[in-house]
Amino acid sequence: MRTAVPRSQRRLRDGDPSQTSAPAPADSALAAPARRRFAVIGAGMAGVACARTLAQAGHDVVVFEKSSRPGGRTTALDSPFGSFDSGAQYFTVRDARFRQALETVPGLCRPWSANTVRVLDEAGRVAAASPPPGEAHWVASPAMESLVHAWARPLLQDGRLLTGTQVMRIEADPLKPGGWQLRTESLDGSVHVHAGFDAVLLSQPAVPARALLQHSAIDLPMTEALAPVAIAPCWTLMLAFAQAVRPGLTTLGPQWNAARSTHHRIAWLARESSKPGRSQIERWTVQASPQWSAEHLEDDAGRVLAKLLKGFAEITGIRAEPTFAEVRRWRYAQTTQPLGQTHLWDAQAGIGACGDWCIGHRLEDAFVSGLELALQAIAR
Fold it and tell me: pLDDT (tens digit, 9 = 90+) per residue, 280-315?
């Protein structure tokens, strides 16, 4: 376990040239902050928003992502018939800073016409009146992951985003008093040590973030603060019906593009091919309810697929054999008990955490959390 060192002492030990006996100049408050080196664990929306903010402020950043590409829960599933948004389905724009950030990638995100989302019963009948059109539902094109990819591209090009790299342990850096090093494992099983970090920022779901801190024997108040956060799992079914693309037939089943359902297995259905910038081959994304997903979390994928396909047919009336069918399990999909604040940051230790789970479950929540953590870490 690392013993935290007060920042003033840490700078002296690190040889910070600003720590001298000479009086500070009168305009020292206007001086640029010292360049620091940050490790960000996780390259979903929160992690990339955090990392790009730090990089834009002139700091050194290295992002570690265990998957083969960035995106987090925006990651798409590719198929011969088009892509599927296997996680986040759309996003809203409420925070002015998020709106401003979206302006840096003009044309990448477009409104989705499924603003009026129906609520269906188990037989697919309308169970509640459709709410009046409210805020726009936005999607990135050609897939939801495209937004995170666009913002992550400079980090990838500069070699500051390491994919296929899982952080196994956070350790005190023996060569940098008050600093950190990360012990990682690559997809090929090789182990590496990345050293010289002033701070480590965890952009992961709350459960694995807390587990990493505990495994690293880092005893901080934030470790226990993470404990009450609850995130429900989700099984997602993705279906393609290539036979629907022929003269006189453009869609199968219902004429709506998105619906919430009270079916005991299924909570959400979306016609993937209705989203702007997508392939026109009829495709559906079906997300199981949190309760059903939790009850069947460890079930065989084939069994889950069959049960969700049956529920899909009951709701939509589409009983044709799909050309493509696959399921994906998200262990941490939707926050049910948020932290209640935008992020966690221990300035003395140089450890922080962020994610949508801090304040909710929306994609915008993840952006705000990552941004807020970066701004506070910069301010120390």
Answer: 899 999 999 999 999 999 999 999 999 999 999 999
Task: Give the pair of three-digit tokens for residue 316.
Answer: 């939509």
What is the 8-class DSSP label of residue 361? S
pLDDT one-digit tens code per residue, 151-168: 999 999 999 999 999 999
Region class of 89: left (phi > 0), else alpha (psi between -120 and 50), else beta: alpha
Query: What contacts 115, CB < 8 A, 6 or more positions away?
Result: 133, 134, 136, 137
Question: Any idea which residue has 């989203």 for tokens?
Answer: 275
d(CA 11, CA 239): 56
- pLDDT at 252 > cutoff 90: no
Report d(CA 193, CA 169) in Å as an integer.
Answer: 10
Task: Give the integer Cα–Cα distance in Å for 265 and 96.
Answer: 37
As a whole number of angstroms, the distance between CA 37 and CA 25 comes to 26
Distance between start and end Cα atoms, the chain = 22
What is the 3 state secondary structure string of 85-118?
ECCCCCECCCCHHHHHHHCCCCCCEEEECCCCCE
d(CA 62, CA 80) in angstroms, rounded, equals 34
Backbone Cα Rg of the chain: 23
Contact 266, 311 (CB under 8 A): yes
User: CA–CA separation, 15 vs 209, rounded Å?
Assistant: 31
pLDDT band at 126 (very low <50, low <70, confident <90, very high): low
Burial class for 120, CB neighbours closer than 10 Å (0-12, 13-18, 19+): buried
Q: List Cα–Cα distances, 221 to 44, 109, 348, in angstroms.
A: 25, 39, 12
- Confirm if 302 and 100 have CB atoms less than 8 A apart: no
269, 299 in Cβ contact below 8 A? Answer: no
Q: Model-level pTM?
A: 0.87
The residue to which tokens 């940051």 are assigned: 345
